[in-house]
Write a structure and sequence with these properties.
By secondary structure, the protein is an alpha/beta fold. It folds into two domains: about 130 residues, 3-Layer(aba) Sandwich (Rossmann fold), CATH 3.40.50; about 160 residues, Rossmann fold (3-Layer(aba) Sandwich), CATH 3.40.50.2000. The chain has twelve helices and twelve strands. Strands 2-1-3-4-5-6 form a six-stranded parallel beta sheet, with helices on both faces. A six-stranded parallel beta sheet has the order 9-8-7-10-11-12, sandwiched between helices. The model has no long low-confidence stretch (mean pLDDT about 90).
Length: about 300
Amino acid sequence: MKVYINKAKEEWIVDRFRNEWNQYNKRTRKTTFLLKNNIVWIIAPWTWAKFSKKTLINNKVLCTIHHIDENKFGEAEQIDFYNRDKYVDKYHVISDQTFDKLNTLTKKPIQKIPFWVNQKIWFYIEDKASLRKKYEIDNSAYLIGSFQRDTEGHDLKSPKLSKGPDRFIQIVRNMHESNKNLMVILSGKRRNYVIEGLKKYEIPFRYFEMTKFEELNELYNILDLYIVSSRVEGGPQAIFEASLTKTPIISTNVGIANEILSKESIFDMKNILKAKPNIDVAFKNASKFMIPNGFNEFNKMIKDIYEN
């Protein structure tokens, strides 16, 4: 039994998942041409049409659905979904919310398993003072982090509302009014919308566009707070990353938030001031998905697909 995971080729997180799977699951990995009776894992479902129909017919097909944004699930998206659904043997989702939405669209079996998290990349660093000195940030600064893209398309202007960049600006603007030491730490591509908002309201920020994992781990470790302000999410994986680095984090009730974070750490825009990070709960829950344990349920799922 061999598993072939398709590439997104977008320098996005699914490419990292593919690389980690191939690195840690050498017995089942398949990185080249597919023969019959293997498993095709469509981890980047929007690229499914790159497979030949013959490949999809001759192999068992596992398809990950990261999230379903109902505001974007128009006629074209529905046609694409049902064209792909004909070839899928089983679906994988990350969260209960995606499970519930997908269950209304297909009769194929669905299994929920959060993705693994690599503790060799994401870990706690005790010496915060040295890290701040390295990045030339004053110890008195109150640092709020956001490390995901916020624009919709290549125009770099339209906000990706599912990620909640407008909400993020509203939150940090209100916080900055009462704490002038507040500074925002940004990373990731397409941060144009948030950057323009921070400039507009004269909120200090530092932007690290594309960073290596080592640097991004350090950026998590200098934060006083990480905020997930999304409206729709599959993960986000930032919840795992912040949890393992023991970064204080609060989040809207999206994706895996209510499975990893404490109830007091989940907010909506009406009760944001009451949200409180709980580092211990987040770390304990996220630790369950560290490598290699994080692969266990995936291997069971793949074995079940292969044998049935």
